[in-house]
Amino acid sequence: MLKLQIPKNRMNYLIKQIPLHFDATRLEQGWEYYHKGRVTVVDLKGLTVLSTVAGKQLHKAQIDLENFAASTCSCAFEGFCQHIGATFFSLYAPYGRPELVLQQLKQQIHTRKKPLRSAAILQERKAVAPANAPVEESLPTEWHRFFEGKFHGFSISHQHSIETFFDSALESLPPYAANWRDTTRELYMCHIVLFMMRKIEQFYQETKSSYLSYYHENGCKIAAKNCEEKLVQFIRRIEVNRSFQAEPKHWHATIKMVGESALQGKDSPVDWLFVYRFIWWALTDQLAVQQEEMARLDTLLAKKDMLPKKKDTLLAARAHFDIIQGHTEQAFERLGKLAHPHAKDFFLYLNKFVNEGQWDRMLVWLRWLFPTIANANHDDFRTFCQYWLDTTKHLPNDSEWVGVMESLLPRSYYYYTAYLLQTKRYRQWVDLQLANRISPLNLYGMELKAIEEHDSALLLPLYHQAAERAVLEKNRASYKTAVRLLKKLHSLYKHIGQDDRWEHYIYRLADKFSRLRAFQEELKKGKWIR
């Protein structure tokens, strides 16, 4: 059955309405109906979803996407029945796994059913609420206390609700600072993102042991990446020197808060080391606070019995200040003490050098990173190769880049082979395929055609090797493959006018494998031997 996909804003509306109208038992029955395939028809008419759900008999359910309370069903149950629930899960299926959203909604229903405080207490809380709103003169710790209260009880139980949290925080929190002065409002926006990062990390830690941890982790990483991008965007908007002079207390509180989160070396979906270094890079001109931070890091590094991961984080943070001050060799000396260096932790610098066109510094860093790149994951390896390629364009020649690619073979095969074709080094390209035992049948036709147009003779050893390797597999299918290769090889010999050499080769090949009767039959079919 084809799934009806309603707009995401309508789906978010339904997710909010379900806990308000269903009890947990009836909702779970709805999921069972959906899981057993009892929702047979789902259609959309205006803003109403029409469905047919099979129970003991067929029932017609209608879900109003604008006013959920007006949804109805033809069954005898008074209220929101399992048929409406089954229809909801059918609508949710294109967005994620219904069994996951079921758990989230049941949790919200149980929370809603907890005994409420007395009306007087609730009224008192409402009266106090405006006073708890963030104040321009308050320090960031007070802002975060307000953020926590605002999202107290916000339930996150699968990856899509993490997206809901991200969107909700960015939508609901900024208006409180709408009338503040620019310098404070800009920092306030950064703290909204820092708050979201802390909540995402907290959720990640709480759900690590869950059987759904893979889905939680994936959602956390996506949301954390979005937060990092937002923070970079907000920091770049700030005129840091003017802002620091106007809001020194707020800035000191900010860097203290970031340091507390970033320097623990704990497992987190948030790249806190990136956040820490990016913010400090924005404070390049604030020499006094830099000196204070360096002294603090030196004190922390002097402590003994420290976990390796935390020590690596502190070393990378301390080396960052050497880099800011242009002491690259000193930074490398510190970073050489890392127990587990990761190339991706230093792409921050490479990206900055590319944007600023500092190709000399870029080359120094690429050479230093080379030993660690062999153990990098696929994405980091690809990024490293791209940085090298960009840098090579600004060097007198590409000999060093070629040497790097050759030393990283076979992992660098795809990047190196593409570069050889791009620079028309066809003989080296053929040698690379021969060394890696790549069959022409596994290469792109356009690549082979380009070399054939340049010099057909270059392809001869490639086809020779592939054909004989196929014969050595000794089965009928491989013999047919060998004949395909031999046909192309024959055409290449004809193209370069060496028919005699072809005749000599084919008879020698037939003689070499004279005991392989099936192969001899294939050669006879090709009319190459009698």
Automatic annotation (TrEMBL):
Keywords assigned: Metal-binding, Zinc, Zinc-finger
Residue span(s) of domain SWIM-type: 59-92
Cross-referenced InterPro entries: Znf_SWIM (IPR007527)
UniProt GO molecular function: zinc ion binding
Metal-binding among keywords: yes
Name under which the protein is recorded: SWIM zinc finger family protein
Organism of provenance: Paenibacillus roseopurpureus
